Amino acid sequence: MTNKKKEHKFYIPDEETIDAVLNQGRNATKKLLLDLTNTVKELVAYVEKQNEVIQNLSDKINKSSDNSHQPPSSDGLNKKPRQTKSLRGKSDKKNGGQPGHKGHTLTQSNNVDKVEMHPVNHCDICQNSLQSVGIKKIEKRQVFDLPPLTIEIAEHQAEIKTCPFCGYENKGQFPEGITAPVQYGKMVKSVINYFTNYHFIPIKRTTEIFKDMFAHPISEATVLKANKNQNKNIDLAIQSIKEYLKNSKILHVDESGIRKEGYLNWIHSASNQKATYYGIHKKRGKLAMDDIGILEDFMGILIHDFWRPYFKYKNATHSMCNAHILRELKFIAENYKQKWAKDMFQHLLIIKQKVEQVRETSNHLNEKDIYHFERKYDEIVKEGYFVNNQVSNNRKPVNLLDRLSDYKKEVLLYMHDFDVPFDNNQGERDIRMTKIKQKISGSFRTQIGADNFANIRSYISTIIKNSKNVLEELFKANGGNPFIMESPEP
């Protein structure tokens, strides 16, 4: 039997087949790479989204009244003990009263209401009588105290006589304002206005004060009526305040939420160093401010915290509150670790300090200083944009940079005009008083009550700014002679 050798056949693919196999491999590899690329893109987008969420949460946690627009009350119960530290840096002034400040140390008076003598009848050593001995000298000690507080009741009696010639019955004339058989006088009404609108004492507690302090209970209706009548008494004064503010060079504006009839309303303030006006409205924006009727006619410098509706008033020159900007820069420096924010923070304070120094001898900076300050300002903004172009999701730093860039003139206006303050603290201080009222008394029950408070508080704030005695001016207003603002000097 013959063994045949097995033959092996080799398959040699042609060039077309080889290309097909290679293309199939390349396509599979390409598809795998594309799938991996899309997966990586999805993961990157997801991570960026998570980073944005984390950054927003971190911003919310780290934001406080010290580095943002939030009020101190929003810091919460777990806030750290507040350290009073000015964002404007250390002042050159010493602690305590400044030169020219009038002190209020209690000193003896030459006008006393009563004198109590304390005689020496005998010698403390030998007990000898000293009644016939002359007085060598007198040592005086004075006690400042209140007399017993009580309601004084004045009865007015008008005579009635019948003429014997014609029979006509004649009656004596009561003083002006005395119209009812029983009524409260001007001082009682003024004290009610003083308690409720100056010291923000709630209506019920005001009635309790009268009962405890004057031994005379009054009703809540009496308190409400006293404020309602005072609002009418000061109508001309309020109109004069609004006209004064319209024609002023500088006007600070601010707004804040306030509760009325259980719903959120807004209290708007317009003020300067001499006058204050408050208006309560359902709206926050331009519609409310138009209804209040000051900003439409204002052609001076409007200082605010960059709330957009204020920019709709084109007749005014706008100036930004740099205290707000400093707080935002502090937030960016602390939470985003961006050096440009710290540099701008220091730069704004350096300009402010320079303005304060030059103001003592001049009313303007020289052109060289202005050029230097503006150039440095632009360099810091440019550096900020460069830093944030390298990092994604830095929305807050970029928003602040956009504002500093687009509104450079408004931010630095205090450098060009020394009448312009560095910040809007005047407006913030004025509106803060109304927030204290709400914190103590809660919501306003009616629109009438809200309007009464806003007008009387406008009058009181203006009185204080003009160095007038509040209770005395409230008394004059109740007597038909309110304090009237004169037109501002041109």
Describe the fold and architecture.
There is one protein chain. This protein has 490 residues and is α/β, with parallel strands linked by helices. It has a domain at 340-416. It is 47% helix and 8% strand. It has helices spanning 15-62, 186-198, 203-214, 220-233, 235-246, 286-292, 322-335, 339-359, 367-389, 395-406, 408-411, 413-416, 425-441, 447-465, 470-478; strands spanning 160-162, 169-171, 250-260, 263-271, 276-281, 301-304, 317-320. A five-stranded mixed sheet has the order 5-4-3-6-7, with helices on both faces. A two-stranded antiparallel sheet has the order 1-2. A hairpin with a 2-residue loop joins strand 3 and strand 4. The model has no long low-confidence stretch (mean pLDDT 88).
Secondary-structure blueprint:
Elements lengths: L14 H48 L97 E3 L6 E3 L14 H13 L4 H12 L5 H14 L1 H12 L3 E11 L2 E9 L4 E6 L4 H7 L8 E4 L12 E4 L1 H14 L3 H21 L7 H23 L5 H12 L1 H4 L1 H4 L8 H17 L5 H19 L4 H9 L12
Helix pairs in contact: 2-4, 2-14, 2-15, 4-14, 5-14, 7-8, 8-9, 9-10
Q: Average pLDDT, to the nearest integer?
A: 88
Strand % is 5-15%
In the sheet with the most strands, the strands line up as 5-4-3-6-7
Order of helices and strands: HEEHHHHEEEHEEHHHHHHHHH
Most strands sheet: 5 strands, mixed
Radius of gyration: 38 Å
Low-pLDDT segments, ≥5 res: none
In percent, how helical is the residue content? 40-55%
Oligomer: single chain
Q: Which keywords apply here?
A:
alpha/beta; five-stranded mixed sheet; 490 residues; elongated; two-stranded antiparallel ribbon; 7 strands
